[in-house]
Amino acid sequence: MEFTSETTLNGVVERHFILDDITGVLWSPASGSVESPLLLSGHSGGMHKKAPGLIASALHSVSSHGFTVAAIDAPGHGDRPRSTQDEQWGEAIRQARAAHEPIAPIVVEYNRSLAERAVPEWQATIDALQTLPDVNADAPIGFGGVSLGVVTGLMLAPVESRIAAVSFGGVFVDSSLLEAARKLTVPVEYRIPWDDKDYDRTSGVALFDAFGSKEKTLHAYSGRHYPVPDYERDSSARFFARHLGGSVGVSAS
Amino acid sequence: MEFTSETTLNGVVERHFILDDITGVLWSPASGSVESPLLLSGHSGGMHKKAPGLIASALHSVSSHGFTVAAIDAPGHGDRPRSTQDEQWGEAIRQARAAHEPIAPIVVEYNRSLAERAVPEWQATIDALQTLPDVNADAPIGFGGVSLGVVTGLMLAPVESRIAAVSFGGVFVDSSLLEAARKLTVPVEYRIPWDDKDYDRTSGVALFDAFGSKEKTLHAYSGRHYPVPDYERDSSARFFARHLGGSVGVSAS
User: Which of B186, B207, B209, B218 to mutate to test the interface with A (most CBs of A within 10 A)?
Assistant: First the structure.
């Protein structure tokens, strides 16, 4: 893992890194002395490691609870080259949108391919991050994601015992995702943007119902998937603090 | 309004009061100097102003956010005499339970009658509470309730402009309740205990969907209606603090 940049703003250190083919970013408390628990953040399809909503959540998690947050570009996203097949999927989504045809079937297939490739990349990233002096390698890890990030998290969590809690929001639901959800055992928080026509409410509730986890919470809120209300970002950070540890009492909210 | 007792424990003053026929209780910060916003708390049918879950929420709201919380016995509940008709409803519910027949139709009718009577009682209680030196009479008021408390809150909020936010959980839903929900305009937080067979999930989601409020949040959590998870109590207190003011930063959690 090679760090390629480091900047500090408002008490948060931002470091870009490269690990083999993976491009990523790490946000951590500038205070630096405390070994802080790790949160992984999965962006949505078509976005990248520094999506605006992802950054907002990451900065809040670092500032209010002392987490270290890592995000990596999904294959073919952000700073990473696209394969010919990825280009074809992207083109198929654009054409479907232009023709006002449903994009869900294409997105579901594309997401699954991306998530399958992302799982070993996340595992390699965790391995590398846990060697850092300011990351607590013994602490349980959280995974947060939206859309593609949910699919990735649902594939990653059952095969990666270091992940102890997941916080998700907004995803196209198909039968294979429901099947993956049933295998989830760690505490999960799931968000549905109630007024977002892109995400069918009924299938969102069905996904929540399918989660195999003993502790699960559904949050539906009026509005669309972006922006996520500040109180939901705060709730997500508190959820991780409850399950992973972290400085719950330092919340600035 | 006559106070009949006053005790202080762990920084919270508990005062019982009588107002005409109404028996009630008030919890407020022992520090006393700050004029704190008011929360009203509606208990469930068959319970009373000092139901265990209600007390837990009230003490948390006072301790963590400096609210003053009031609860009154519903007609025929707690320290108040039951009418012959209330006795008949209670007996009908007991008989239905014993015969393993659905109690919802009886509870719905009984709740509506109790709530109709409770609305003017809550308004008289608010009038009296706002004359107290330690209550901020200019601050917007919150109403929290479960079961019967939801029905009462949904009847009270549209006719009582001093109520600016409501937090509800778990109620038998019928068409007249859906109609009342459509008239709600203030921010609302609604909870569904996902594994509670007494409360049908689908009708709970339908109630959330019916709320006319621009800002609304649904929280479903694994488990039954009692006990409410601590993090949900905390979320409810934060919800009120966002909408009513209050000392958000003093949370002990």
Answer: B218
